[in-house]
Write a structure and sequence with these properties.
single chain, rod-shaped, 56 residues, 0% strand, 2 helices
Length: 56
């Protein structure tokens, strides 16, 4: 029913020599998503502070 392409975890990580490219793409994608989340969060905090200061 299930046909696994990798026999062990090492084969999964190396992916027949393509693992370095695959895992680098995953790492870059995760870093971009996390970075954009942090930037938006910081900008929202700055905007909230400006709103609080404007109402005083």
């Amino acid at each position: 029913m299930f046909n696994f392409s990798f026999t062990d975890f090492h084969d999964f990580l190396t992916m027949d020599g393509h693992g370095i490219y695959v895992w680098t793409v995953y790492l870059v994608t995760f870093a971009l998503i996390a970075g954009s989340f942090l930037i938006v969060r910081r900008k929202l905090n700055v905007f909230k502070r400006k709103l609080e200061n404007a109402s005083e």
